[in-house]
């Protein structure tokens, strides 16, 4: 088997034994065992090729030689956290800020989307002084507690979980899963009106979004 240490059946057995059940795999009845990737494609243990339309970590493609070389070069020199003074951190912030409006001049670097969303939530609460959040049905925000608490995943799929009065769920603006599908004369306005209605309802209850 190409690139595999165990056969698929053993990998499934070990995953069930050692990985928490809440960390689910895609296609649970017959999961795909991915062993390598290059460019826009991933390959399973039989060598079958899949177009990768789901991973959000390989923006320039898997195994990009420039990224691999840069990562190896840096790890040969230093791999440390951002609390030590280092030129790479400020150089990256400077280059990133140059692509943004002038007022967006401060960077917070985090390790994951969960951390980024948690930080954005705390910044919004601090700035507005309000707790209300509009989220989308079927939305996934991350696996830290603050994000699970505002996620429809919690109160739609988990037993005994109630939706907070500060969380307002908007319909998904999706032509495949949403209610305003292809053929609707003006789906964008329809979804915008749904969100406007949620804000009005929150204000009527004395909340501010």
TrEMBL record:
EC number of this enzyme: 4.2.3.2
Superkingdom, natural source: Eukaryota
A single GO cellular-component term on record: mitochondrion
Reaction(s) the record says it catalyses: phosphoethanolamine + H2O = acetaldehyde + NH4(+) + phosphate
Alphabetical keyword list: Mitochondrion, Pyridoxal phosphate
Record-linked SUPFAM superfamilies: PLP-dependent transferases
InterPro entries for the chain: Aminotrans_3 (IPR005814), PyrdxlP-dep_Trfase (IPR015424), PyrdxlP-dep_Trfase_major (IPR015421), PyrdxlP-dep_Trfase_small (IPR015422)
Gene3D superfamilies found in the cross-reference section: Aspartate Aminotransferase, domain 1 (3.90.1150.10), Type I PLP-dependent aspartate aminotransferase-like (Major domain) (3.40.640.10)
Cellular localisation: Mitochondrion
Main location, first listed in the record: mitochondrion
Reported function: Catalyzes the pyridoxal-phosphate-dependent breakdown of phosphoethanolamine, converting it to ammonia, inorganic phosphate and acetaldehyde.
Family per similarity comment: Belongs to the class-III pyridoxal-phosphate-dependent aminotransferase family.
Protein name: Ethanolamine-phosphate phospho-lyase
């Amino acid at each position: 088997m190409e690139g595999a240490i165990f056969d698929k059946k053993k990998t499934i057995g070990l995953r069930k034994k050692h990985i928490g059940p809440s960390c689910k795999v895609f296609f649970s009845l017959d999961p795909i065992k991915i062993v390598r990737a290059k460019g826009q494609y991933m390959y399973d243990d039989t060598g079958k090729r899949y177009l990768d339309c789901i991973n959000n970590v390989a923006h320039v493609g898997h195994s990009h030689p420039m990224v691999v070389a840069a990562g190896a070069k840096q790890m040969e020199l230093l791999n440390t956290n951002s609390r030590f003074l280092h030129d790479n951190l400020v150089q990256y912030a400077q280059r990133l800020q140059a692509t943004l409006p002038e007022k967006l001049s401060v960077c917070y670097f985090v390790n994951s989307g969960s951390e980024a969303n948690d930080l954005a939530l705390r910044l919004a609460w601090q700035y507005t002084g309000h707790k209300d959040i509009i989220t989308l049905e079927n939305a996934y925000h991350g696996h830290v507690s603050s994000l699970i608490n505002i996620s429809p995943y919690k109160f739609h799929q988990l037993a005994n979980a109630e939706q907070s009065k500060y969380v307002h769920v908007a319909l998904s603006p999706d032509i495949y899963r949403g209610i305003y599908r292809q053929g609707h004369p003006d789906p964008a306005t329809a979804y915008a009106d749904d969100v406007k209605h949620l804000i009005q309802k929150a204000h009527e209850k004395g909340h501010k979004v």
